[in-house]
């Protein structure tokens, strides 16, 4: 089942998701470094990185929702996709809660609650990421109908599109 939102032959959601996931994981690493060293640069870096990760997650989520809308109703893929998407809404809510708690503090200093939100958020992101992998690897969501080990490049016109245009 092919992705509904594509750019140059590839689904947009899996292209975009690497940015928020990487940024949010990096924010947690900065939190850990801040806790280990008490250097203020790490807490500020965590806050800015987290903010960008939240924005990126919102953008990736739009394209994930577009793809989810194309999954046939009543299928396991539709149910797994719903859990994946709703789980990621919770991930973004946890990181947003962490970010707003930092915003209210002096010098972006993370409270215990902010740290708990970000740590729980990144663990949950691992779970929802696994579900995303299940959607693609096991259930074939977002996989081109022409996929195969010898499939032509996605940058070339497919035979189906060429036939539709009368070529």
From TrEMBL:
Q: Which domain of life is it from?
A: Bacteria
According to the record, the segments passing through the membrane are 12-35, 47-68, 80-100, 112-131
Q: Which residues form the DUF2231 domain?
A: 9-144
Assigned keywords, A-Z: Membrane, Transmembrane, Transmembrane helix
Descriptive protein name? Uncharacterized membrane protein
